[in-house]
Amino acid sequence: MFIQTESTPNPATLKFLPGQTVLEMGTADFPAPEAAVSSPLATRLFAVDGVSGVFFGTDFVTITKAEGIEWDHLKPSLLGAIMEHFQSGQSVMASGHEHTSGHADHDGEDGEIVGQIKELLDSRVRPAVAQDGGDITFHGFDRGIVYLHMQGACAGCPSSTLTLKMGIENLLRHYIPEVTEVRPVA
């Protein structure tokens, strides 16, 4: 098994490509070890000292390191943990734990606008963000303001504010005049 790695715009995050499917669909975000109970792979990765976050996409694993830890020291252990997991035949997610994240539901009078927002996010934004090892999902819409949840490499990335304001906000405002601003949610 050969696992490739790619840097991301977030220097604290590295993208691992195991060359096989990680999740059949959707994403799974584990921002802390306590969140990893539904995933044997995430639990194994958090057991490596220095891991502060794990994120799964369909064909990648994004790992965020703790401050003060160097990738040169952490990377060999992570490659070993990922390889051991996939060679063990264990599933990535525990049975009965569909931990795929996606857009939040929206009930209300702005249903058509929210549908357009989600469509633009799915077709234009999420594929590009996935290439950087992250995901951005719809969280809410209120009086012209779109609230988005950033995960994986996007969470805490130095360029995430620029991505939100200059990229996503401009895109949404161009296609949907009702959108006035985009804000991140934790």
Q: Please bin the fraction of helical residues.
A: 25-40%
Largest β sheet strand count, sense and barrel closure: 5 strands, antiparallel
Net shape: elongated
Strand content: 15-25%
Mean of residue pLDDT? Answer: 89
Order of helices and strands: EEEHEEHHEEHE
How far is the first residue's CA from the last residue's CA? Answer: 36 Å
The strand line-up of the biggest sheet is 1-2-5-4-3
Rg for CA atoms: 17 Å
Q: Uncertain segments of ≥5 residues (pLDDT<50)? A: none
Descriptive notes:
This protein has helices spanning 40-46, 71-88, 111-131, 160-175; strands spanning 4-7, 13-17, 28-30, 51-56, 61-65, 134-142, 145-152, 181-185. It has a five-stranded antiparallel sheet with strand order 1-2-5-4-3, with helices on one face. It has a three-stranded mixed sheet with strand order 6-7-8. The protein has 186 residues and is α+β, with helices and mostly antiparallel strands. The relative contact order is 0.17.
Key features of this structure:
186 residues; alpha+beta; five-stranded antiparallel β-sheet; three-stranded mixed β-sheet; 4 helices; 8 strands; elongated
Helices and strands in order:
Layout lengths: L3 E4 L5 E5 L10 E3 L9 H7 L4 E6 L4 E5 L5 H18 L22 H21 L2 E9 L2 E8 L7 H16 L5 E5 L1
Helix pairs in contact: 1-2
Could you provide a short overview of the structure?
This protein has 186 residues and is of the alpha+beta class.
